Amino acid sequence: MTIFDLVQAPELVAYWETMTQDRPPYLGEELFPNNKKRGLDLKWIKGSKGLPVVLNPSAFDVKAIPRDRIGFDKVSAQMPFFKESLYIDEELRQELNIVIETGNQAYIDSVVNRVFDDEMSLLEGAAAQRERMRMQVLTTGAIAITANGEDLQYDYNLPESHKGTVATSWSNPAADIVEDIRTKLDLIEDETGVRPKRGLCSRKTWNYIMKNNAIKKAVFVLTDGVGVMTDSRLASYLQETLDIEIVVYTKRFMDENKQAKAFVPDDLLVLFPEGTLGNTWFGTTPEESDLMTSNAANVSITDTGVAVTVTQHTDPVNAETKVTMVCLPSFEAADQVYILDIVAE
User: Can you give the three-state secondary structure of the chain, one letter per residue?
Assistant: First the structure.
């Protein structure tokens, strides 16, 4: 038995899928479910208005008037490529050799699990990168990632009228938060025929809503706003008053510069409709298209389109694990979303 026998792509994928089967999904995995296509090009139809256009009247025995396909834009882009690898270092390889010689299976398993846990950081990073892109799209209408000499810029062309700023900052307890939200719900419904039923914000933004004077008085009517506001009380009030469910999203990630970042930035509220908003599209990686049937490496696919590749090296003797993906979210519901900046200009 050698490190080449222990570290194989199918075993790494099986370990990852077992480890994550009980993990709560990222919010973006529900809003932008995974899908796959061949190649790198991504095209989708984005409806610029959700309102139906009435059928024209016509006389009998005349040709029909062709309708222009107005109100729809075909958006296309080339999906970006992500790639990173990890080696088993010299020290860990020697430890593996020692434990293999002992024949103690429990000891061997503990060391191999440590190796696998290290390798999982690549797959965790791929999942976090997908969530960052989905949340950037939802909270800004664009993707902007600059790292490793690459500058990824994708603009999803949200209508400018669906981005706005409040008249009074929500950090001011006197702000009319309910009316700010109601007017934006009305605007989306008036323009698209679809009324947003959900919202998304950070904990900081949620805390501003909790401390709002008018909302506290509405919740604690008998005590003129005096009482302990809880998440559940506030959520119930917003559901009853505005028919909207707001998700407080606090998950974070580490960017390429090892800086902790929030998936959802502070000081904004995003309003969006029920159902899925788009798809997380995977393309075909070079590893999947060229190495799946070769003897140069062993490759397995997980998470719909993420390739795990293990390559044996002879000088120095080592095993390299590489994780690659071609991925980009589409945003078919872009025109039914409102992004509200809660800091007044």
Answer: CCHHHHCCHHHHHHHHHHHHCCCCCCHHHHHCCEEECCCCEEEEEEECCCCCCCCCCCCCCCCCCCCCCCCEEEEEEECCEEEEEEECCHHHHHHHHHHHHHCCHHHHHHHHHHHHHHHHHHHHHHHHHHHHHHHHHHHHCEEEEEECCEEEEEECCCCHHHEEECCCCCCCCCCCHHHHHHHHHHHHHHHHCCCCCEEEECHHHHHHHHCCHHHHHHHCCCCCCCCCCCHHHHHHHHHHHHCCEEEECCCEEECCCCCEEECCCCCEEEEECCCCCCCEEECCCHHHHHHCCCCCCEEEEECCCEEEEEEEEECCEEEEEEEEEEEEECCCCHHHCEEEECCCC
120-169 per-position pLDDT tens digit: 999 999 999 999 999 999 999 999 988 888 888 889 889 999 999 999 99
**Residue given tokens 């997380």 in the structure block:** 280
pTM: 0.88
The number of angstroms, rounded, from the C-alpha of 196 to the middle of its chain's C-alpha atoms is 19
Which residue in the block uniquely carries the two structure tokens 């109601």?
182
What digits encode the pLDDT tens for the residues 77-121?
A: 778 889 999 887 677 777 777 877 777 788 777 777 877 888 899
The single residue listed with the structure tokens 């029909």 is 64
Token digits for 206?
């949620």
* CB burial string 137-150: b at 16+ within 10 A, e below: bbbbbebebeeeee
Which one, of 175, 130, 192, lies nearest residue 269 by Cα?
Answer: 175
Q: How many CB atoms lie within 10 A of CB 163?
A: 15
- Contact indicator for 96, 6 with CB cutoff of 8 Å: yes
